Amino acid sequence: MVIPATLGLLVTYFIFHVAAGECPGEKPTKSLLCYLEEIPARFDPCLCTHLVLQTSLEKLTPQSELVKTARRLQETNPSLKLILQASESAEVALKRRGGYARAVSGAVSKCGLDGVEVALRWGKQTAGKVQLVDFVQTLSKEFSKLEPKERSKRSYKIYENIADDVVTPRWTPQGNSKKIARKAREVGSPEDSEKTTVTDDETTEAQQETSSNQEIIEEEEVPENGKQIILHLTSEPQYLAKNFDLKRLSKYVSFYTLASDNLTDSSERGLAYHPSRLMGIEDILNADSLVDLVTGLGAPHDKLVLTLPATALKFTLADKEKNLPQSPVTGEPVKISRAELCALMAEGEWTVERDEDLTAPYAFHDTNWLAFDDPTSVSIKGKYILLRDLAGAAVRSADA
């Protein structure tokens, strides 16, 4: 099964000792999200921090087998978060965003879940940056209604640090206070022209909150609630820039899941490729470049979750003598389970190779060409997550 092969290796890098009464032994220090359509009978809930339930809103009920099994697993691991995946066309969801937010919140409440992953499907014509922020804000407010009335709010300031013509966002959570921020452009010396003042209605005194190379661009109180909002990010740069205001969304989002388990585009059509490369120099079809891109657009690194495939891709080579990545293939790649991968490689003499960074293993035999993750690649990706201080990892199709 894939859990020992993939999650077990990630847990090796993301662990610390915990007290008795929860899962025995050790527990991840980073988030480990497990995506499941069905829960295997021998699934170990202590290897995950989150279970993402992949089913439609219509099929999700407290009586559904998926929900009942997940709740039983939560009894074994009380720290386990149960997350609904809300997958819908972005055009449809954002057009009726208020109603869709209420439907998602209602499903989470009805089934006793801990949050939602918003995984919208973006079309070529969709441009919903403002609408997406409004939807996530509305969803956060709906979740706050599910919490006790005495729960506090978080006050956020968003700054822009301006240095060497590079704008870098910074988020500063404040205490329980009500503040109104405004930019004050005073006429006078050059030094005075860049001052920013903050009015605090509790102290009634203007305080200098920023230096000359910082500007408060927005301040807002955000309801604090116990439900998590996870936002799935597309891997296509043009859609990221057009549809995601990551600076504003980060006030409401617990994690961003990066689609690093299937990094491909039309340029690789008709070619053999690895769907989950960690590094790359000449293109953006690798996790490292994607992390750089989204942090540059305003996402905090400690909210980023890299996704890894539990499945493999099977290609048919057009010429068995041409077996390197980017070699011509016939037909479309076929996704196969971990069990199918192991059974296939148990027959015949397979040659296993990998990219220079060791994170993109592939195997070939005759005209068969396979791309997958193995213990070496998963271990390196786990170390990468720690070195870059990302939020954690996710395993797609953990029931494969």
Automatic annotation (TrEMBL):
Residues 1-21 form the signal peptide. The lineage of its organism: Eukaryota, Metazoa, Ecdysozoa, Arthropoda, Hexapoda. It comes from Cuerna arida. Residues 30-399 form the Chitinase II/V-like catalytic domain. GO terms for cellular component: extracellular region. Keywords: Signal. It holds the Pfam family Glyco_hydro_18. Residues 205-215 have a biased composition (Low complexity). GO terms for molecular function: chitin binding; chitinase activity. Gene3D superfamilies: 3.10.50.10, Glycosidases. InterPro entries: Chitinase_II/V-like_cat, Chitinase_insertion_sf, GH, Glyco_hydro18_cat, Glycosyl_Hydrlase_18. Residues 183-198 have a biased composition (Basic and acidic residues). GO terms for biological process: carbohydrate metabolic process; chitin catabolic process. This is Chitinase II/V-like catalytic domain-containing protein. The keyword Disulfide bond does not apply. Residues 173-215 are annotated as: Disordered.
